[in-house]
Amino acid sequence: MILDHEIVTTGNTFTVITSVNALLTGAAKMDISLETCRGAVIGANGSIGRLCAILLSQKMENIVLIGRKSNERVNMERLRELANEIYLHAIFYHKERSGIRKQLLSLLENELVFSDGLYQTRERLYELFQTAESAETDNLEEQMSENIIDDIELLFRQAGHKPPIDYGVDIDYFLPELDVILVATSSIGELLQPDLIKSGAVICDVSRPANVGKIVQEKRPDVLVIEGGLVKFPENLAFGQNLGYKPGVNLACLSETILLTLENSNRNMGIGGRITMDDMYYIQGLAEKHGFTLASLHSFEKEIDDEYIARVKAAANKQVVS
């Protein structure tokens, strides 16, 4: 029984925030453009993967959602529902002209590419953007239940373009074309085939146990693999053996518990397997208030620096030349 004063958290919310920030930091250091690259979330149907995909869609214009191969029909259905949610998020919540929102606006603002019937479809979708500008936050829940993915995919294909969100369950099929990858699954074992990874790619592995094996590091020196979900405390605190990290660095899931305690919070976080954007903004605010920041990048449990990343870039450039 949970008493009123007891707070429960999964720790997933802060894990999402720090993992996405780590991936974006790694991409910037590898000189990968978020506007032109192709990114993916492996494990997109999970609690962490879902929100990571939504956050990445605010920055990236081309994203792939990848789920489990088991029970393919159900998982494809769920991936399609998530893609629909991301499109709605781009319209009603994300107000900057970037990522998936930018792709949608660029398509809908071009009236000339649609025939009469599809012109009406385009008009209906464009009106959603106008509705979003005037809608009260309290009234958005109903709008977020709309199914718009069929119309969006139809319009992109009619215009001669692939939809900006793709989805599937075959990792090996997508892997060779991916520049940026976030792995967040509950699977035990190594999921990425080293020989299929694109040269110069950045992979952020959030999974515990890790889904990216050391064989990737050994066989692919031209690929940057980093750990997700690591936090830097404002002071060099350590808890026992500190899970192998140096003082001042710890897992985001544990750090979320510390943040809620410091704040004397009365909010449960991430219960029920669905993290809300409000939860994310709340934890983000607490982290800023208490001085918890993204830890330096780590790869296979070791801290890495710009010199290490320069070697990975050099190896990737060598692959391109050859």
TrEMBL record:
InterPro entries: NAD(P)-bd_dom_sf. It comes from the Bacteria. This is Uncharacterized protein.
